[in-house]
Design brief:
Strand 5 and strand 6 form a beta hairpin. The longest helix is centred in the C-terminal third of the chain and has 23 residues. It contains 10 helices and 12 strands. It has 275 residues and is α/β, with parallel strands linked by helices. Helix content is 41%, strand content 17%.
Length: 275
């Protein structure tokens, strides 16, 4: 694998089915043999990110998402706190994750969820992976909140749609954002409760990501177009768009990772911050 003087952190947004586009992004990074020091992810991004960070090759991840259907992720289970259950998602992750704890990941990872008590983003980076991912994907209204470390947590996209700030605080040199919601060009009228809730959370999350570009050195924004949040069957299109968007940014990314000037600037900022 090529050695670069600067380290890379990758922030993966949420986006329901749109999150499949992250697989195309990661596939290009793997093909170009670009090392990733850390992944930070919210909601759907935490699924793709965790599988990749755990060592699942991009080609296997591609086969997995091609076969994915909503019944593999959620099941109807109406209750006081939500209409669906994430038990199928937990079972899927249990079958497919090569490792089950943050400490055993091949790439360091931070999963973002939202604390209902404080209203703040919570960063999970230790312990069991599966409860953290389920919490980050707990879409309010559809899925009940998850209990993790005594906190009641819901979807990370509510407070941190593209968690670039988490990576910047962790000290990586180059921060790349993969935002699969930025270039959605068609918004059909919601046809069911799922679409109403997802659209509402999307609108809230866009407010939450308003400052993420300021923290990102590279922004990868796949052309999602008219693909809806439910369109798992359009996985190949989503991955293709993610791949194309990442390929367009590879020259700029390699230049940044090779920049010793950037490394000196980051080191200078860090040293000033300690004074």
């Amino acid at each position: 694998m090529p050695e670069y003087p600067c380290s890379l952190g990758v922030a993966l947004s949420g986006g329901a089915a749109h999150g499949i586009a992250h697989v195309g992004v990661l596939k290009v990074l793997e093909r170009e043999r670009i090392p990733i020091k850390m992944i930070a992810a919210s909601s759907a991004g935490s699924i793709a990110g965790a599988l990749f960070a755990a060592g699942l090759p991009a080609e296997e991840l591609t086969l997995l998402v091609r076969a994915l259907r909503w019944k593999d992720v959620y099941r109807f289970s109406p209750g006081r706190m939500g209409l669906l259950s994430s038990e199928p998602l937990a079972a899927l992750l249990g079958r497919t994750l090569p490792v089950k704890r943050f400490e055993r990941l091949k790439i360091a990872m931070k999963v973002i969820a939202t604390d209902l008590a404080s209203g703040k983003a919570i960063v999970i980076s230790k312990g069991d992976l599966i409860p953290a991912i389920c919490a980050s994907c707990a879409l309010p209204g559809l899925l009940p909140p998850s209990q993790v470390s005594g906190k009641m947590l819901v979807d990370g996209g509510v407070t941190s749609g593209v968690p670039t700030q988490v990576l910047r605080r962790a000290g990586v040199d180059v921060v790349m954002a993969s935002d699969v919601n930025y270039k959605v060009t068609s918004f059909a009228a919601p046809g069911n409760l799922f679409e109403v809730i997802v659209r509402s959370v999307y609108l809230m999350s866009r407010q939450a990501v308003s400052g993420y570009i300021e923290e990102a050195d590279i922004v990868v924004a796949p052309e999602i177009g008219d693909i809806s949040w439910q369109d798992l069957e359009r996985a190949d299109e989503l991955m293709s768009q993610g791949q194309a968007a990442m390929e367009a940014q590879i020259p700029a990314l390699k230049q940044l990772l090779s920049s010793r000037r950037l490394l000196r600037r980051v080191a200078g900022q860090w040293n000033r911050g300690r004074k």
